[in-house]
């Protein structure tokens, strides 16, 4: 009886402290977003040519040591490494994140960035019931960005790094001349909210990537949402690989600013983002996305090989 009373008395004294220990343990502690956004505010300062992020790197490195499972830190530090041309450090960082067995979304983000950094060329791509190709691992640059967010200048061929503004783009883009042809916003199946696009790459720089189609079957047509960023139209060759033969199709991609009148426009936006987070409204020279259609043979389509062209960009692909 004496022992029970003594034990109960000790428990009453220690109870508040036990609560504090459990609450602040690594299993229950959630990193404060305030620290992340404070560092991001520092990162956003300066013009588009800025390369020195010494303070941000120091803060992020320390933050990752203290909270290794707060994954936005990795994304921001990777951006800095990519801006500085430190590809090896960015690869090491995303590999570290993967080793922590992250949630599905962050596993996809890390895999996507590693594919881009390592310039991966071969992919297995699933086709949805609507015909949208899941290009999440193929995207290798940031072509669609959010307001007031600094990003890596790897999309346009301009020093200020022009991109499309995210908030004006719908989730699904329909072609004006044929509304049955639709394109899906990049990475849409993997984002919980539009802010998540800040972590993803959202456009393809065409380097001759090979896309193995799943399911492999007979399709009627291939539809491309793309353009050139070189200042002039560019001709790129798309290779279609069937079960018993291959076919090369030459596509003329219109420049996204100096529009070719004969090309079919799908989207237009006069708002332009710069890579330091600034934006301008340019009514005289808006940005354009175009639709290109390729009729396919009545054969089982196995693979699509994208053009190998420095200035060609693709936002989405649809099979019908």
Characterise this structure.
- The chain has 320 residues and is α+β, with helices and mostly antiparallel strands.
- It folds into 2 domains: 31-117, Alpha Horseshoe (Serine Threonine Protein Phosphatase 5, Tetratricopeptide repeat), CATH 1.25.40; 122-319, no CATH class.
- The chain contains 6 helices and 16 strands.
- The protein has helices at 2-23, 33-43, 54-66, 72-83, 87-99, 104-117, and strands at 122-126, 144-145, 163-165, 172-175, 178-184, 204-207, 210-218, 221-228, 234-242, 246-253, 264-269, 271-273, 279-281, 287-295, 300-305, 308-319.
- Strands 1-7-15-9-10 form a 5-stranded mixed beta sheet, with no helix packed on it.
- The N and C termini lie far apart (80 Å).
Layout of helices and strands, plus pairs?
Blueprint: H1 2-23, H2 33-43, H3 54-66, H4 72-83, H5 87-99, H6 104-117, E1 122-126, E2 144-145, E3 163-165, E4 172-175, E5 178-184, E6 204-207, E7 210-218, E8 221-228, E9 234-242, E10 246-253, E11 264-269, E12 271-273, E13 279-281, E14 287-295, E15 300-305, E16 308-319
Parallel strand pairs: 1-7, 2-3
Antiparallel strand pairs: 3-12, 4-5, 6-16, 7-15, 8-14, 8-16, 9-10, 9-15, 11-14, 12-13
Helix pairs in contact: 2-3, 3-4, 4-5, 5-6
| Count of helical regions | 6
Question: What is the terminal separation in angstroms?
Answer: 80 Å
Shape descriptor: globular
Low-confidence runs: 1-30
Global Rg = 24 Å
Tell me the domain tally.
2
- The SS-based structural class is alpha+beta
> What is the mean predicted local confidence, pLDDT?
90
**Could you state the oligomeric state of the chains shown?**
single chain
Order of neighbouring strands in the sheet with most strands: 1-7-15-9-10
**Biggest sheet: strands, sense, closure?**
5 strands, mixed
SSE string, helices as H and strands as E: HHHHHHEEEEEEEEEEEEEEEE
Please indicate the percent range of residues in DSSP E strands (runs of 2 or more): 25-35%
* Approximate helicity band: 25-40%
- DSSP summary, beta strand count: 16
